[in-house]
From TrEMBL:
UniProt keyword terms in alphabetical order: Methyltransferase, Transferase
Enzyme Commission designation: 2.1.1.164
Pfam families on file: Methyltransf_11 (PF08241)
GO BP terms: methylation
Protein name from the UniProt record: Demethylrebeccamycin-D-glucose O-methyltransferase
Gene3D superfamilies cross-referenced by the UniProt entry: Vaccinia Virus protein VP39
Amino acid sequence: MNEAPDPFWKTAGDARQYDEFTKTTFAAIYPVIAGQVLERTGISRGTCLDVGSGPAPLAIALALQSDLRVTALDSSSKMQSLAARNIHDRGLEGRVIPMLGDVHAIPADGETFDLVVSRGSYHFWVDLPGALREIHRVLKSGGMAYIGGGYGSLEARKSVLAGRKKRGIVDDPDNPSRPRFRKFRPGEIESSIEAVGIEDYRIISDDSGFWMVIRKSA
């Protein structure tokens, strides 16, 4: 039986190349971002969902710095295979669990996760309000979501840009000319959050990146 078409990565080589980037050019950003997630949400134990996890670099970094049990959700079977290998290589089987699925229909019951995170995937969501509604649904009462994109610090961003330039990649990673990369109008993200009925949230926009920090009412 032929494998179903991958919704994002056309070839296994494309997926492997991205996996390599996370271990080289981008490697330093994930421990930094994981630390910021834990500090800013105050959640370091329980259950966590990483949406659009790719080969699971952030999920792994979170597990290494906390007592969280992390589910790494991605819609790409190619990425899930790479994630499973990376999790095994770090000895985190049972702590980080790959899950195949889409943010618009998360395959989990409501009130499942204490923390939901996502770095770099929201620009590719077809329906931002719908995705946020699903994230809010699977959060436990009092749980938090930390969603956005960035490099953790200005120094890390400069390092990533230098690494990309060394590889001959010259586009701006904050404004790439990539298919399916969605750019948001001013106020659109806030409107999308509020359209779902979420009232307890804040936006962080600083050297760490752009992040939506959401709390589900207890």
